[in-house]
Amino acid sequence: MNMKDLNLDMTAFWMPFTNNRQFKSSPRLLVKAEGMYYTSSDNRQILDGTAGLWCVNAGHCRTEIVEAIRQQAGEMDFAPTFQMGHPKAFEAASKIAAITPQGLDRVFFTNSGSEAVDTALKIALAYHRARGEGQRTRLIGRERGYHGVGFGGISVGGISPNRKAYSGQLLPAVDHLPHTLNLKEAAFSKGQPAWGAHLADELERLVTLHDASTIAAVIVEPLAGSTGVLVPPQGYLQKLREICDKHGILLIFDEVITGLGRLGKPFAAQYFGVTPDIITMAKGVNNAAVPMGAVAVKTGVHDTIVEAGNAGAIEFFHGYTYSGHPLAAAAACAALDLYKSEGLFERAATLAPHFEKAIHALRDLPNVIDIRNLGLVGGIELSTRDGKPGARAHEVFVKCFQKGAMVRYTGDILAFSPPLIVSEAQLDELFGIVAEAIRETA
Ligand code: PXG
Ligand code: PLP
After folding, report:
1. Tens of pLDDT along 232-290?
2. Is the distance from the beta carbon of residue 429 to the nearest atom of ligand 1 less than 6 Å?
3. Pair type for strands 377-382 and 408-410
4. Which residue of 70, 287, 315, 327 sits 20 to 30 Å from the alpha carbon of 192, by its own alpha carbon?
5. Residues 242 and 371 both lie in one domain
6. Which helix (H) or strand (E) holds 379?
7. Count of structural domains, the chain
8. CA 381, CA 393: separation in Å to the nearest integer?
9. Are 138 and 156 in contact (CB under 8 A)?
10. Atom of ligand 2 nearest to the CA of 320
11. Looking at the structure, do residues 406 and 360 belong to the same domain, yes or no?
12. Residue 215 belongs to what domain range?
């Protein structure tokens, strides 16, 4: 099959986060997927270095998940979860609660990470209101944070281009912590940088500025993915937790990327030994086979909201038509079973040292100014061409695709997050292709 055989009209589909004109003039199409590989429309095998978009953690088209969806689709396509229920949604929630940090055992379903973030922010506001501290409405995010594309998410998020066009209508009571990347102090750190824990003290400064009594929650990605793999400095997240505790502020970890095994534990919270009050997740929660997101909440936060509601009335005025959709829930049950039976989170932990060695072997290549890694996630930062941010990484990305590997880039940072089923040989193949592409890029 080639592009001509496909005879595609590409006009109508307005592609997300894409240079539409550039893409449609020279498209890259994927038509099939299995395990670690995509098949391109010109019938080449493409090694998946990014688990799709950081989401296909068990590899593609796993029989167990495919069959679970097939069966559910034939048995019951849809059932509401507003004042009705169906077994798979309850089962999926229990399976998620079984692997979240102890105490975060109430689960709200959404259809994406963006919706999970909006839901978490609303839970934080509803919680303080239910406790009689309704004046706690301020939300603290972080520069360079990515929390999806809802108005809540871009407000607490810190990626300028995602905010610029809407800047007049972002949520009003928001502030941001500084991001933690510093090439001068921490370039080429393996794993967590030793430098930077003091940046968490900026939260104390914001508390002094706004007063704790106005702040509802702090939301951070424990490891910032989308902005280009920013690994938290040693001790940084612990400090954020301490400051939040001291001032009665909820701590939300956005684990849409780090959740479901990426760092070798079910959640980054467990990897870092820091327990937030709320965790948002999506992507790997059902191996991305059907859209699904979720919010895991501490029992006490859930109970506060639920018990404050009038008996006989809805307690939390929030939900999506497709919250706990049967197909998504069936896929989640199958994916979570698969992660467990194949020990894929442990596998990620076992592979992490090889991943670290393989990625850091690229440090002396031309234009490489930093390499960052943790678990099975890594980033290579390239210097930016004069006046052309992103151009160099885009070229490397296209070359990788031509050579048979799919990678991701943002600005001039290449990002890697292979499925957790990846082998050491495939990691070597991936970084071999990346090295060649970087070498061939001026
Ligand atoms: N929070 C975090 C931490 C994320 O990484 C979202 C929220 C939003 O999830 P949805 O499902 O609404 O997309 C994300 C998603 C990239 C990239 O290029 C990253 C994401 C999505 C698409 C691309 O790095 N992260
Ligand atoms: N817009 C309209 C007109 C609706 O009726 C609904 C849901 O009923 C929505 C938006 C929200 O859709 P969803 O529940 O899929 O998020």
Report:
1. 999 999 999 999 999 999 999 999 999 999 999 999 999 999 999 999 999 999 999 99
2. no
3. unpaired
4. 287
5. no
6. strand 377-382
7. 2
8. 9
9. no
10. 14
11. yes
12. 66-341
